[in-house]
């Protein structure tokens, strides 16, 4: 790719946005980034600070993005109810595309997730889905902000003449600090606290999820699929599930994570023991670990997302994904899941964020 490809990455500080940004930069693209606040990003050629919920300020800020050829929409805003999720997130993506209506956009990609099949936060798992999750499955009844984002994307693609792709990752694994949905960093902090305090390293989720077949999505694999879909004509106007390509059970992966941290595996108690409760004192404990090991002084609240890992690990139904749409069109990226976790753990140690 050449400098003629100018990517606008919306949500560039998150897992999906930062990983695709670095990949595109390495591929020779010009990378324009957008987030709510001013920030310096090593892969960004031009950063735009904008609150997409505010139309006038968004339109003014997007005067700096009138040359973009590709859009990667990797953000959302959580609200108190799903009706509000639908309203706010539809407004945000609409404001974005209205603000670049005259730009020479060729393709726009939207990153959502498996709540497309499992239901919204308000209706989560009320309907038992077919597994593996199929990309051609019908939408579930009820409001879902993923559907609202898709509808705006489809509308704007037709109006403005660009192709689209929708990417539905499972639990995301990668290295980023301050992300609200970061299981690898959360488990690294949990393991480090258990090792420092002698607490048992117990799997905190449901018995169903502990024993079930499941999968996850390495942020590197998602980035590769985003790049592939943006540059492959056969991928135009398609939804794509995206996972590592292997499956696992927590019964054995938990033991491998424990071994990485030189911890014994605690006996599973037979029911969920949520991290949000067992780690209620984590802020004070983590401050002591930081001081004892001369770590970067990052509050535990910026590292661990107890609530999100609890939600993923405490599901009471089987969750894994089919990738027919991209596999049959030539996308063949694969990532062993244990290495997804271990690579993040290695980075956390190397940057002195967790103890060695």
Automatic annotation (TrEMBL):
<protein>
    <submittedName>
        <fullName>SDR family oxidoreductase</fullName>
    </submittedName>
</protein>
<dbReference type="InterPro" id="IPR055222">
    <property type="entry name" value="PRISE-like_Rossmann-fold"/>
</dbReference>
<dbReference type="InterPro" id="IPR036291">
    <property type="entry name" value="NAD(P)-bd_dom_sf"/>
</dbReference>
<dbReference type="Pfam" id="PF22917">
    <property type="entry name" value="PRISE"/>
</dbReference>
<feature type="domain" description="PRISE-like Rossmann-fold">
    <location>
        <begin position="64"/>
        <end position="355"/>
    </location>
</feature>
């Amino acid at each position: 790719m050449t400098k003629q490809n100018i990517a606008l990455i919306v949500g560039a500080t998150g897992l999906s946005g930062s990983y695709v940004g670095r990949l595109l930069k390495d591929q020779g693209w010009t990378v324009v980034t957008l987030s709510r606040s001013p920030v310096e990003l090593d892969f960004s050629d031009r950063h735009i600070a904008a609150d997409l919920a505010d139309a006038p300020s968004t339109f003014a800020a997007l005067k700096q993005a009138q040359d973009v050829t590709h859009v990667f929409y990797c953000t959302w805003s959580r609200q108190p109810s799903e009706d509000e999720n639908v309203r706010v997130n539809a407004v945000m993506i609409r404001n974005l595309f209205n603000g670049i209506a005259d730009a020479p956009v060729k393709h726009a990609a939207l990153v959502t997730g498996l709540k497309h099949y499992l239901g919204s936060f308000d209706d989560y798992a009320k309907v038992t889905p077919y597994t593996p999750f199929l990309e051609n499955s019908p939408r579930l009844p009820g409001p879902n902000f993923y559907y609202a984002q898709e509808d705006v994307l489809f509308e704007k693609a037709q109006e403005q003449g660009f192709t689209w792709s929708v990417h539905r990752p499972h639990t995301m694994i990668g290295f980023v600090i301050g992300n609200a949905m970061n299981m690898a960093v959360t488990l690294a902090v949990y393991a480090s606290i258990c090792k420092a305090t002698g607490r048992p390293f117990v799997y905190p989720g449901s018995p169903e999820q502990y024993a079930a077949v499941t999968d996850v999505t390495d942020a590197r694999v998602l980035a590769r699929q985003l790049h592939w879909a943006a540059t492959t004509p056969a991928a135009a106007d398609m939804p794509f599930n995206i996972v590592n390509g292997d499956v696992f059970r927590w019964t054995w992966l938990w033991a491998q994570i424990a071994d990485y941290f030189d911890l014994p595996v605690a006996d599973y108690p037979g029911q969920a023991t949520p991290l949000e409760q067992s780690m209620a004192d984590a802020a004070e404990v983590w401050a002591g670990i930081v001081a004892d090991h001369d770590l970067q002084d990052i509050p535990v609240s910026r590292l661990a997302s107890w609530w999100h890992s609890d939600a993923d690990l405490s599901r009471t139904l089987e969750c894994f994904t089919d990738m027919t749409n991209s596999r049959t069109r030539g996308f063949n990226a694969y990532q062993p899941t244990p290495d997804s976790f271990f690579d993040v753990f290695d980075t956390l140690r190397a940057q002195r964020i967790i103890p060695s």
